[in-house]
Amino acid sequence: MRVCVLTDKPDHPLLVAAAAALTGAKHQVKFLNPDAGTGSPSQPVAPDDLADVYLLKAHTRRALALARLLEGLGARVVNSAAATELCQDRSRIAAVAEDAGLPMPRTRTLNALSEALHGPEPAESGYPLMVKSRHSRRADLVARVDGPAGLRALAAEWSDEPVVLQEFIANSGWDHKLWVIAGEVFAGVRPAAVGAPPDGARPAPLIRDLPRSWTRLALRTGDVFGLDVYGVDLLDREGAPVVVDINAFPGIRGPEGAPEALAALALKCPGKGPGRPAVSSGSRRR
Q1: Which residue segments constitute the domains of the chain, with CATH numbers given?
Q2: 184 forms bridges with which residues in the sheet?
Q3: How far is Cα 109 from Cα 95, in angstroms, rounded to an integer?
């Protein structure tokens, strides 16, 4: 079987270990950087030379364009270009989640952060609030704002940035990260970027103590967004999980068994078509 990984980071530990598992079982693994070269991706390969499955680890515009070209040739791409693109837009994520009844912070979209200085109260719940770049990317904007002065300071630096304003979720100071590969859930905890209690972070919860309802929420999120490899960040709001981030094909580091699960997924995926379709949603303002 031929597996092609679309990434600009072929040395990522997850990918290296998954590739080793596949080559050890006599399968072929190739790495392709979608961002190599300039201009728009051209016809990448003849239909008869397609790999059996493409793993879409890169999320750039060129990577998405290449994935769509491959899907148009009948290739199997995991995650699909549509599902990956959906998860790059925090405004669309919030709209899809609301339609599906997934618990997420209340979210409002602005075409530019500067608009928050001239409109009504920035969020229904007032301050504090979270300000995030609408389009997820490396070095994007994610910040807590505690009042008008903080908002003005942030807008001075990010004036033209399309953003979402989100309800701030008071939390224990720990992000619960659930990574899912073909229905198998891996969990970890990381210090939350914002929101730790004033008396310091509480002890990290044991991963095995997460309620099953949290795992079910992570699995349902994948079904809603048409994802096979993804991450869900959850915060604990008075004992109930709240989804604060969804990532298509994240960099999963640490959980034992994740590379083997990814290799097994690749072996299950040969065939034509892009994979599970992403949920479609209009870009309505919130």
Answers
A1: 2-86 (3.40.50.20), 106-167 (3.30.1490.20), 174-252 (3.30.470.20)
A2: 181
A3: 10
Alpha carbon dihedral 85, 185, 264, 72, in 10-degree steps, equals: -10
d(CA 277, CA 56): 14
Task: Give yes or no for a contact between 209 and 203, defined as CB atoms under 8 angstroms apart.
Answer: no
CA atoms of 240 and 244, how far apart (whole Å)? 13
142 strand-pairing partners: 132
Residue type at 197 in one-letter notation? P
pLDDT reported for residue 270: 65
Spatial distance between the Cα atoms of 234 and 222, rounded to a whole number of angstroms: 14
Look-up of token digits 């079904």:
223
Mean pLDDT by 10 residues, the chain (286 residues): 94 96 95 79 69 95 94 94 97 97 95 85 72 92 92 95 92 82 88 58 57 92 97 87 94 89 89 64 40
Neighbours of 281 (CB within 10 A): 18
The 3-state DSSP class for residue 21 equals: helix
Structure confidence at residue 285 (pLDDT): 36
How many CB atoms sit inside 10 A of residue 51's CB? 22
Task: Give the sign of the dihedral formed by CA 90, CA 91, CA 95, CA 96.
Answer: negative
Is-contact 241 213, C-beta < 8 A?
A: yes
Phi, psi of 242 (to 5 degrees): -125, 130
pTM of the model: 0.87
